[in-house]
């Protein structure tokens, strides 16, 4: 049991080292990680924050209010 | 109205751009993951170091594609919330489950199995590594499954009930959503086409390696694996394509009519093999639909109904509504004018429901809900001003279908030829023209794949959800200027992203071609 708990305690460190060693040994990795990080930054820090709000979440607080807004729109759309 | 249409058009263009760019990456991920898994299995079983090196070569290409493609699909979800908020709310309960499952699969796939695949060499056992590679391939496919289930539901809404109180469709039967015949067919057709695309990519790049005359054994061995995967893929894609045609004829007959440029159908309907549409032809007029065409007798009846004498309705037949018996089949369709009336009745009932709700009249609400339910299957038609608005863009659908089918036929020959050459006529692999042909086929398979997407998505217009919600009802109340801005922003960002992927891949392939990979 104590061996198992020691194993569990060391697991996060092992996983961290697994990833760290992996990143270090990648040959094409730096460029790819740059692409991934730039892309994720553009997607979440620019697109999501500034350009792609969830319109219903932004304008209405409750599900009932959102349902009312959509119902109103779909009834009155001509 | 003009501004509304502008928002609809720009939002559609933006969504199409994002989806088509996303779709450049996805099938290669699906196909390469399988091919890499097969190659690693060969290494595991034979312990031949050649297969380990070949596996690592293609795994590197898989990694480049995965890194460039990952998260591009998330932008589509942003667009749902911003541009398509009515739609998102209307279908939220149905889409929530498949997309949440997809997110979970994608998360575990990306954080676990791919990490073991790339970082686990010499750190985990050979068997564990092989399992991680296969689980990555399986995870990619399962991830695609839920997206395709959601897409299939938009083409064939099933397993739900409309709740006017929540103003959304509520899932009534998950099994009916996940296992609808449209979803099952779409899943297999799409994933199997990914196998073909991955196989053509491997064969094409192998042709480049052969042109450089340094890694013949790597190239020939790679073509053998990719050739079999591609052959199985193209045969099964054709088989499931036949199933798709049957399903489309059953649940989206207007799409099938547009795919064929067919305005008036008949029993024993021919299939246009190659043709030029008459650009002046409009639904309801007497002009010929085709300027020129080569028709396969009874082909469409066989394709769509598996019966050479069956009746296949055309666009005008569907608009007018038909009822006739052909070879034992009774075909009855409700005219589009009647559908529009039914849709308007459902919408009037919805307005009455809203008025009763505001008045706190429960009895009137219940009555209105019953009236909505009675005509709900045609709810979306109430937004159409004319039956002709329900006709998809015929030209784009017709030509995209032909491009897909002709390219598919070519790919069958290509796979047969690739296998024939590596097993029987390896001398042909020294001919530059043959190798250039292999390389050029990479472009053809992507065009084929994107054309399939165009057929599926343009062919169902004007519907976002078949018969229930047209595009213009799905849109948010937003300014067209902001959508135009983000559209052009995406053009720039996606161009840069694709340029990065292509340049990194080309650089790596050139680098590999200059060394002896097996050393």
3D architecture notes:
The complex is a heterodimer of chains A (78) and B (519). Chain A has 78 residues and is mostly helical. Chain A has one domain (2-76). Chain A has helices at residues 2-25, 29-51, 55-59, 63-76. The mean pLDDT of chain A is 82. Chain B has a domain at 1-179 and 480-501. Chain B is built from 17 helices and 8 strands. Chain B has helices at residues 2-46, 49-69, 74-82, 85-119, 126-155, 174-178, 181-211, 216-251, 253-260, 299-305, 315-320, 336-359, 362-375, 394-423, 432-458, 471-474, 480-513, and strands at residues 160-163, 168-171, 271-277, 290-296, 323-326, 329-332, 463-465, 469-470. In chain B, strands 1-2 form a two-stranded antiparallel sheet. A two-stranded antiparallel ribbon of chain B has the order 3-4. Chain B has a two-stranded antiparallel sheet with strand order 5-6. In chain B, strand 5 and strand 6 (329-332) form a beta hairpin. In chain B, helix 9 (253-260) packs across helix 14. Chain B starts with a helix and ends in a 6-residue tail after the last helix.
């Amino acid at each position: 049991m104590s061996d198992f708990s020691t194993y569990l305690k060391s697991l996060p460190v092992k996983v961290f080292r697994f990833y760290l060693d992996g990143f270090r040994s990648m040959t094409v990795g730096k460029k790819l990680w740059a692409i991934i990080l730039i892309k994720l930054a553009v997607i979440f820090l620019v697109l999501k924050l500034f350009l792609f709000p969830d319109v219903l979440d932004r304008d209405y607080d409750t599900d009932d209010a959102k349902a009312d807004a959509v119902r109103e729109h779909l009834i009155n759309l001509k | 109205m003009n501004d509304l249409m502008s928002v609809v058009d720009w939002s559609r263009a933006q969504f199409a751009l994002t989806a088509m760019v996303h779709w450049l990456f996805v099938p290669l991920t699906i196909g390469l993951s399988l091919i890499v898994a097969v190659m690693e299995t060969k290494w595991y079983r034979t312990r031949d170091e050649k297969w380990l090196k070949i596996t690592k070569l293609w795994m590197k290409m898989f990694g480049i594609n995965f890194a460039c493609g990952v998260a591009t699909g998330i932008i589509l979800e942003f667009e749902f919330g911003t541009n398509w908020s009515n739609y998102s709310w209307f279908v939220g309960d149905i889409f929530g489950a498949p997309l949440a499952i997809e997110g979970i699969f994608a998360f575990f796939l990306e954080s676990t199995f791919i990490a073991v695949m790339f970082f686990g060499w010499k750190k985990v056992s050979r068997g564990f590594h092989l399992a991680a590679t296969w689980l990555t391939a399986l995870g990619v496919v399962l991830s695609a499954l839920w997206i395709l289930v959601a897409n299939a539901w938009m083409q064939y809404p099933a397993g739900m009930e409309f709740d006017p109180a929540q103003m959304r469709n509520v899932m009534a039967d998950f099994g009916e959503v996940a296992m609808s015949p449209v979803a099952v067919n779409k899943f297999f057709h799409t994933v199997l086409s990914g196998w073909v695309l991955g196989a053509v990519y491997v064969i094409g790049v192998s042709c480049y390696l052969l042109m450089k005359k340094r890694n013949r054994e790597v190239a020939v061995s790679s073509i053998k694996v990719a050739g079999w995967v591609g052959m199985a893929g193209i045969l099964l894609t054709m088989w499931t394509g036949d199933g798709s045609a049957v399903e489309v004829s059953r649940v989206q007959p207007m799409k099938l009519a547009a795919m064929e440029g067919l305005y008036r159908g008949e029993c024993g309907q021919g299939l246009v093999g190659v043709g030029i549409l008459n650009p002046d032809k409009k639904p309801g007029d007497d002009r010929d639909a085709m300027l020129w065409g080569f028709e396969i007798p009874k082909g469409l009846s066989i394709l769509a109904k598996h019966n050479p004498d069956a009746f296949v309705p055309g666009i005008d037949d569907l608009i007018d509504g038909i009822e006739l018996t052909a070879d034992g089949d009774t075909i009855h369709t409700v005219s589009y004018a009647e559908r529009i009336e039914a849709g308007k009745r459902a919408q009037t009932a919805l307005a009455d429901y809203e008025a009763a709700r505001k008045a706190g009249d429960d009895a009137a609400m219940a009555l209105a809900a019953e009236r909505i339910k009675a005509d709900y299957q045609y709810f979306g038609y109430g937004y159409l001003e004319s039956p002709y608005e329900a006709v998809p863009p015929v030209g784009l659908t017709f030509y995209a279908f032909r491009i897909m089918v002709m390219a598919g036929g070519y790919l069958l020959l290509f796979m047969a030829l690739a296998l024939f050459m590596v097993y029987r006529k390896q001398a042909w692999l020294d001919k530059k023209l043959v190798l250039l042909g292999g390389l050029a086929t990479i472009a053809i398979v992507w065009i084929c794949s994107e054309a399939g997407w165009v057929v599926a998505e343009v062919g169902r217009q004007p519907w976002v959800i078949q018969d229930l919600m047209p595009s213009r009802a799905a849109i948010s109340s937003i300014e067209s200027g902001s959508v135009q801005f983000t559209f052009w922003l995406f053009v720039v960002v996606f161009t840069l992203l694709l340029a990065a992927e292509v340049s990194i891949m080309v650089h790596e392939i050139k680098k590999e071609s200059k060394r002896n990979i097996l050393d």
